[in-house]
UniProtKB/TrEMBL annotation:
The chain crosses the membrane at residues 44-67, 87-108, 120-149, 169-194, 226-246, 266-286, 307-328, 348-366, 378-399, 419-440. The lineage of its organism: Bacteria, Pseudomonadati, Myxococcota, Myxococcia, Myxococcales. Pfam families: NrfD. InterPro entries: NrfD-like. This is Polysulfide reductase chain C. One of its GO terms (cellular component) is plasma membrane. PANTHER family: POLYSULPHIDE REDUCTASE NRFD, PTHR43044. It comes from Myxococcus fulvus.
Amino acid sequence: MAETAAHHPLDPLEPRDLVAPHHDDKSLNETLLDHVWRKPGKGWFMLFGLSLSALGLLVIGVTYTLARGIGVWGNNQPVGWAFDIINFVWWVGIGHAGTLISAILLLFQQKWRTSINRFAEAMTLFAVMCAGLFPLLHTGRPWFAFWLFPYPSTLGAWPQFRSPLVWDVFAISTYLTVSALFWFVGLIPDLAALRDSSKTKLQRTIYGLFALGWRGSGRHWHNYKIAYLLLAGLSTPLVVSVHTIVSFDFAVSLLPGWHATIFPPYFVAGAVFSGFAMVITLIVPARKYLGLRDVITDRHLENMNKVILATGLLVSYGYLMEHFIAWYSQNQYEFWTFYVNRATGPYAGVYWLMIACNVITPNIFWFRKCRTSIPIMWVASIAVNIGMWCERFIIIVTSLSQDFLPSSWGIYTPTWVDWSIYVGTLGLFGTLFLLFLKFVPAVAISEVKELQLELKHAAHHNSHGAH
């Protein structure tokens, strides 16, 4: 039995796969808090400066839009939805991996989520913040955005609750609120650890304020576990519901290429696909430069690549079914959209780039060498996010640019303002993420300690059983 255990390095109870076995509580504290207390290096400052520069483009783009109106965007007739909704759907999709890793894997007691959940939760928050900007600006008069909420208006004007755009408002605001609560509750024990190891009174006061008086008593842990589990239960249906509602923006219309019942599950699979890819994109350089290889191991990365492979196959199936139904239904408009406009039309290059990134690229993860190769998985994760952005572009622009009436067809070209706002949201995301890495433990210390203790007990029990 001892030989059998030795030949299964991926056994779920093998400590060395998820946490390096030489660590104790003290060394884990030092390892996981080191990047918070040490001065940031030149690399961090360079990335932060680059992100702030991109954030400046967002300020310029948004200011110019508010001053001149959304006519400065490339939107036209018939392409009334363009970069704003493309980027909205893309950012919301990226935010899905955090909730899935944190909530669903927690409920299913998957131990490999422990070291990566905080990265993913932070990514969710920042991605949803970026997503929320686009529909707000898209309304044309964002200062009237409160009309979308059912506040007690003296005019008796109420939102149109049958509109999927109003559903979006409730879905996104709920998702952001629950995700923020879930992230913050998980942070409380680690904020207390930062408070207790602070060197200055200012640090101790700030971290102590956010730690909410945490002392690590039995009562505190009991309440913490209940709150964390309840929030996980609340977050789980949001993974499915939020992107399902986003897909309704398209599926409830009659446009060819949009009017499809497969959109809700297909959008959810695509969201998890792009979200996990973004986690890989961020976590691979972070684990190297923050010295987290002992707690974010190759096992974690390989498991995430398996999820990317599985969801990539679901996305590929969605593409296949769209084309099959367009042929099988014998609807000439659907057939034109999928087989002529998208594959050979003015945006054919974007379409085939989407196929290359989303259909072909994930299949390299069938091979273990690719699943465990850091350079390959990092490049593949970037390709997947490019492909998912191209997918949103194809879905929105091709269906609108050539619909039922050839005389109303038009070509969409983004302007410098479109690009500025998009690149600016990347800067906003990067700025927030770098600040998160500087001031907050990137890995949940209390959960890693708990996992290590549990795995050591299990390994000890297994060794006694083998003897």
